[in-house]
Every structure is written in structure tokens, then in C-alpha cells.
What does this fold into?
Amino acid sequence: MEPRWHHSFTRFSDGCAWRRAWVSTIVHILNTILYISYDGLLEPLGESQVVNYVERLAADHVMTVLSFEKPVDLSDPGRLRAMEHRLEAHGVSWLKLRYHKVWPTISTAFDVVRGILYARAVCRRRGVMIVHARGYVSSLIALGARSASGARFLFDMRGFWVDEKVEAGHWTSGGILYRIGKWWERHFFRSADGIVSLTDQGVRALAKLGHKTAPSGLVEVIPTCVDLQHFKPGAKDSELLDSLGLTGTTVVGCVGTMSNWYMRHEMLQYLAYILRSVDRARILIVTRENHCNLRCDAEQAGIPGNRIVFARADFADMPLFIRLFDVGMFFIRPVASKRGSAATKLAEFLACGVPVIINDGVGDSGDIVRKGRVGLVLPRVDMETFEHSLLDVRALLADREVASRCRGLARELFDVERAVYKYRRVYRLLSSNQAGLISS
It folds into this structure.
């Protein structure tokens, strides 16, 4: 349903050229969005979780993206030009700033100040109506910039970042950085005109954590989604299988990050157990991380060097590699801060028709996998649980219907078009001053 102002403007503009032009200008202003991402668009995550969204939102909104790009990505002129052309083709303006991390806290503060200056200029010059901030650092920039045009603030929280910093061991609970971060976190929730959470668990945690939202604010749950036309089922590429030495094997696969929140040691231990227990099993890990370090860690976990393969792939080629998997796997630390997190790779696996093996206690993922019957959810990550899971793993690998269930669940929950529809609804409500709690 279109907001009330749209119908009023349409009636006002009927039959008069100058009125139509005036209305077009007003609607243009009301649809002007500044999207801020501290993740770079040239990174796989940025391409998947920012570019795929903004190029679709640009069909009916004037989109400007402010992102912070890693120096290594900016040094690749081919990829840089390709991304510029892709965004230009969809009418998206891209303001790219260099990401700094020489001194972690100081560098982030420098990026924030610089981001505010550029974002304020965009807000003034383009009459930005909504500042859409992806994550906490981006929200610092958004709050410093939105007053330049009186824009509304959409807090796309992406998880409980301050608690993540503590549970990752980077900050001390009760320390100065923690207390500053918590003050800003409370400010984000109170100041936000709209909030987006990746999970239902994250929304439920707000009250438990004592976070107060603006009385007129709205809340929406939008999980990490993927382009189902890009990530889709298909036959295994025989040439790629041959080149990797995986022809005739059962492939257990991992993609992306295997550090930080991902339980690298436990994942490798479980992969070693699978190799000992499943005939013809091989491991394929597709990641940009250091392969030499990973190989050393795999050997220490008991994985023979001839039964594990490492590869790198551009985002465009990821579906080719995922379709080689008979099952995908990842473990994430099940700490309190991860209630609001959702792994993109879950959506990518399911969209390609690949079932998963994951651990429980992270966002909505365990419930999704169990209810959809698209994989195995381990209650713990220890050897006893690994041994008890073997029969279920073999049943999963023998299930001929699981691929269609995976794709069906991805279509139901993780289609980027569905996510974009929700973002459009949030934008429309913010632009028309309609608010209140809305459900997914």
C-alpha cells in the first residue's frame, strides 16, 4: 500500500505540467537514501550483503552508498572499475573512503570523523531523507551526519557489536571502551527511527538487555539473504572437480572466514572425524584466509594433507564451488552476543541445495535448520557429540530429497528480493512518518 502522501500528491499533480514537475521533485527528495557501510563493497561480504540490496533498492529510491574499502581491494583497478560500472548501471552513487587499521581504535575514530564530514556533505547537497546505517560504526557516522538534512535514522544493527568485542577478547567488560560503546549502543536504540535485526532472537533480547527504543520507532527482522538467481542448485562442474582432485569423492565443504567468531579448531577436529568415519570423504575449504596456516592447523587436527583441498574464489564463482559440496559445515561460538547474528553462508548453502552441519545457540539458525529438515544441528562441539552425530550425517548424505528442501527453505526465508521488499516497506514508513512495531 502506498503512503498517504503519495495519493495526495498524485491527485494534486493531475492535469498540470508544473504541478507534475513539482511533485516529481518532492517524491525524489522523499526517496533519497544515504546507505553507510563500514564493510567495503569490494569485499565478498559487501558485494553479497550491500551491493545486491542497493542496486535493487535503486529502482525506486535515489541511493548513495558511503563505504570504507580495504587498501588491497582499492589496489585492484580491474575490480574497482567493474564495481563502479555495476553501480552506475543501476543509478547508485558510490562514495568510497579508505579503511584504516594501523592503530585499531584510533584508526576507527579517524574513519568515523572523516565519514561524518563526507556524509554531512551528501546529506546537505542531496537532501537525504533517510540515513541507513549498517552496523555500529556506521551508526556513529549516521548520527553525526543526519542533522545536516533532518534525515531519519535507520539502525541496521547486525548483532550486538559491543558485547561481541568483549566476548572476542578485544575489549574488557567494564573497561573504558566497553562503557563508551554501551553508551553509544543505548543512544542508537533510543535515537533510531527504525531498527532492523537479523534475527527474532535479537529482537527478543532487546528488552532483556534493557534497551529502550524510540516510542515512534519501528522494528523489522530481515535475515542475511542472497540472490537466488546467482546461488542456485546445479550439477557439479566435472572439470572443476577434476582440477581439484575431488572426482568420485564425498565433499564436505567450508567457505569464507574460519577465524574470529568461527570455531576453527573445533571445525577442523570435526572434519578430521568425518574423514575417519565416512568412506571417500574429502574436505574442500574455499577461503581468502592464509592457506599455509590453515594447512598447518588441519594437520595438527589430524587431517591428512592428501584429503583436504584449499581454494580461493571470487564472489561470482562461489556458487560453482558450493555446488561441489555434498554437505556444508560451520561452527560459530554460541555466546550471548551472537543472538542477533545470522551467517550469510547458511543462506548460500541452502540456496544451492546443499544441506548443512552447524552448532546450536547462534541466532535463529538452529531452529531454522531443524524445522526445515535441511541439516544437522549439534548441541555441543565435543568428541562425544561428534560420535553421536555419525548416523545422522550418513542419513543426511543419503537423503535424496534434502536438496529440494534446502532450496525451498531458501526461497521462503533467504531470497534477496524478499529482503528488499521489507527494506522498501521500512523506507516507505519512515518517509511517510508512519511508525510502530511491524513484524516479518
